[in-house]
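sry for the spam today, last one i promise. struct tokens for design, 123 residues
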């Protein structure tokens, strides 16, 4: 069994908690609206940042749905160029963060960086 590695960014930039660099597919919705697909790019016990394709207003409340969890209420903190930052209305427990990160991790894509071959011959 191989164990995956996870990048953790220290909170040296004044943040309250360490952020985990992730690529997690999730759904997001505002109350009364339909679900929108997003990709979470970093996650902490206090919130997350995501690539979003829907317009959001700073201060609005949204619901985040990750595989393996109940919807999590969050407030939009910032929005810029297709990305947004969110703060959970109730911080996650550290073990919940660990579980969500492991359950939702995408497998690493293995690529061959050597010479490309065609019919067994080097190009």
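last one done:
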């Amino acid at each position: 069994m191989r164990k995956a590695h996870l990048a953790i960014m220290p909170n040296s930039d004044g943040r309250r908690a360490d952020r985990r660099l992730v690529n997690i597919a999730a759904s997001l919705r505002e109350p009364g609206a339909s679900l929108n697909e997003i990709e979470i790019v970093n996650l902490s016990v206090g919130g997350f940042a995501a690539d979003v394709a829907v317009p959001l207003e700073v201060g609005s409340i949204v619901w985040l749905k990750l595989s393996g969890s109940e919807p999590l209420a969050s407030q939009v903190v910032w929005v810029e160029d297709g990305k947004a930052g969110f703060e959970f209305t109730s911080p996650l427990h550290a073990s919940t963060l660990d579980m969500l990160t492991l359950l939702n991790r995408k497998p690493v894509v293995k690529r061959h960086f050597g010479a490309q071959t065609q019919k067994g011959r080097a190009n």
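DSSP finds one helix and nine strands in the chain. ok im logging off now
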